[in-house]
Amino acid sequence: EPQHKVKSREREQAAYMELQILDAWPLVYEVELEVPESKGLTREHRRIDRASISASLAPTITGLYNVEVGSSDHKAVVLHLAPEDSTGMSRRTIPAEIIRMPEFQTQMQQELLAMEHMQGDEWWKRMEEVAHSISAELKGQSKRWDSGLWKMEEALRKSSIQKLTGAAKKILAENGVPYSESATGYQKLHTIITRSRAEQRRKQLVSRVKEAIQETWDQEVEGQSTILEKKSGRQERVVKLLQQMMSRKQTTVVKLQNGKVVSGVNDVGKAMGEFWKSIMVSPAKTAQECEAFIQTLEPPRSWKTAMEVLWKIPSYNIVLTALEKLDPTSAPGEDGIPAILFQLFAEFFVPRILIKIDSIARTGVWGTRWGRGIMRSIPKEAGNLAVDKQRPITLLNAKTKWITGTMKICLQDFLMMMVPPEQKGFMPGRNMDGHLFKVMEIQSQNRKGVWVSIDFLKAYDKVGHSMIEGLLRYIGMEEHWIRMLMEFMKEELGFLVGSKVAETWFKPDGGIRQGDSLSPAIYVMVTVILCILLKKEMPEIVALLYADDTLLWIPGDMEDVCSKLRKLKDVMFKYAEFTGQEMNVGKSKVVLQGDWDLRII
């Protein structure tokens, strides 16, 4: 890239971009390399050019560099290392477009009919094997173009800048690409693969978008929607699909808190496991102590009597409703099966899910590959590979989300009664309008006081299991349902690194999953404790909550406000002591309102 363009861009605001090594690299750049020492590369600050890249980096790197462009030196962070890591467990998934194929549905129905005599986990295991077998067969028939791309990748993997295999030379000749030496040929083969992969992705994207639009049109004919609703529905469908297809790359390299850079599926999985196990812990309180604490808050008496009336026993219709609420194409969990398969063959699956729910409730055992989740980490900030700057997304099996979604429906009526109007998050029929109007009302009166915005440290990941168990027992939920929910939250978590699952699994001591509809409902129940605690200890304040986002209005003059802030600190400490919801002082804010004399503040 010409130097004048580099200097021009440096004057602009810092931007993030991806450059492909061996394809497009500046002639001279100031860079800071951060790579694993095990690869024989040192971490230093030096000038490199295309020649030094070929000599020292090309044998090791075939993937992508993250380049942060700004006024400071350009920083390059190795994301993908070659050869491809052979550790970890491969993850099979069945694409939704394969399940939509008539050939798949015909074969699957035949197999399901032939399996009717089987029972329990044997039936579910056989179903997974059959579904993946049919999918693999249809993939082989329908993706002949992919086969060519796979051969290219194999040729690149077996080649190097010192030597090209016969297959690599043949591919270059077929594409009419001349080369004078192995290093040049290796780079050009990488370029061909990159372009071919991009073309394949473009074709898949166009095909998926066309299918989505056609499905939306079909639904419009059935629903007779208005023109505005039709247009809005089409846009939402296509935008959501594009977001799924164009999502950011997940982390394949992380930087530990001591500064060491770790790569490799199992090493990254181990590092992530150690970090999240240290985060997902519960306070040193038992469920009995938490239940006694709730009793001291004097919650509404209706809690104990309403559960028996409002709790819904799982039934065929409830299970079917939960199935219909699942996103048919969302990323599946360990078994690799999206919800659309269960939705297309609901008559086979609904009765067996009911049986499974009853089995888990009686035994408290979810079973192999039912409750486990896979955590996929995405950097919160582009290019930031620090282990504590990753956003974990838990991928659960669609059948697991189906069960937890059923439990959410069973609990919903009680939640609507239990959760006060101060909490708007994850509650059907509630939105932020009421909170906004309240804020505008207080501001319009120009009353003297302070607004306190509270941020919680790893809110979802630090919820105490003992508090959840104590709360569920206090409200009168039957013991077998409590055992079922608690076992789900304590099930193992693994890590998806690139396209493979690391061998590290751990059982969390605290925290809730963020990949199903039940977990947010459980979190909202815990926030009810905060609402009651604030109302009991500080009845004069106004609390406005949306999930873990908490805004408090504290009226009064300086002396009064300072006294209340000290009391609020004690209240939040008590709340954290039992729930694990620790206030993040660094991100929490206090904003003054009214006529304050700033000279004495």
UniProtKB/TrEMBL annotation:
Superkingdom assignment: Eukaryota
Pfam families for this protein: RVT_1 (PF00078)
PROSITE patterns: RT_POL (PS50878)
Residues in Reverse transcriptase domain copies: 359-601
InterPro entries: DNA/RNA_pol_sf, RT_dom
PANTHER family membership: REVERSE TRANSCRIPTASES (PTHR19446)
Protein name: Reverse transcriptase domain-containing protein
Organism name: Eutreptiella gymnastica
